[in-house]
Amino acid sequence: MNTEREDVVRLEEEDEILDVELEENLLKRNEELAQQNRKLLDEHGVLCIDVMGSVGSGKTTLLEKIAQKLKEKYRIAVIAGDVTTTIDADRIKRQGVSSIQVNTGRECHLDANLVRKALERIDLDSIDVLFIENVGNLICPADFPLGAHKRVVVVSITEGEYMILKHPMIFRDADVIVINKVDLAEAMGVDPEKLVGDALQINPRAKVVKAALRDGAGVDEVIQALGL
Ligand code: MG
Ligand code: ZN
Description:
- The chain has eight helices and seven strands; from the N terminus they run αβαβαβαββαβααβα.
- By secondary structure, the protein is of the alpha/beta class.
- It has one domain (2-225): 3-Layer(aba) Sandwich (Rossmann fold).
- Helix 5 (168-172) links the parallel strand 5 (150-156) and strand 6 (176-180).
C-alpha cells in the first residue's frame, strides 16, 4: 500500500474501534456454530454451498439456473437470506426446488446461528445439495462462515470496474468467482478481463467464470467449477 498521505486516515494497530472484544467473541461464537453446522451437514452427507454477492448481482438467477439443470440429478434445497422479503425463496420454489426463507430483519448478513435454525426445518436426509443465498452484501458475509463446504461470489459488470479490488476479503475466501452480466460490458465500459485479472490477483486458487446468467451463459461452467 502507499505510504503516508496527509489526506488519508488509516486504522492503526493501537486504535480501538468500537467494541473490538465484543466483536471477537461474536466471531468466535459464530465460528463454533459454523463448525457444528458443518458437522451436521457431513453426518447427513449434504454438500453445502454459500452464495454471496451484492443485491442485484445475480445470486438468485444463478440458483434458478442451477436448479433447472441439476434438479433431476440431485435433491436440492435452498436457504434464501434476505432482510425482509420472500421474493428470492418464491423464485426458487417456482423451479420445483424446496426453499426456506430466512429474514434477517436489520442484519446485513446471515450468521451460523440463523443457518442452524433453518437447518432444523430441513429434512437433511432427503437432500443432497444445499445452497445458501446470503444477504446481498460484499462486506460482512466474509467474516461470518456458515458451515458451508464451498463459497461462491457473484459480481456483476454493472457494479463497476473496481468492485473486486474494493472487497478483497470476500474474494480471498471464495472457491468460485462468477463475473456476471458480461453481455453488458460494452454498455458499461467495463472490461470483463480486468475483473478476471483482479479476482485472480486477490485469489489465485479461485475458479473464475464469466457469465451472462439471465441467458444461461456460464451456468455449466459454474456447475463444473463446483464439482457438481
Ligand atoms: Mg437474490
Ligand atoms: Zn452484516
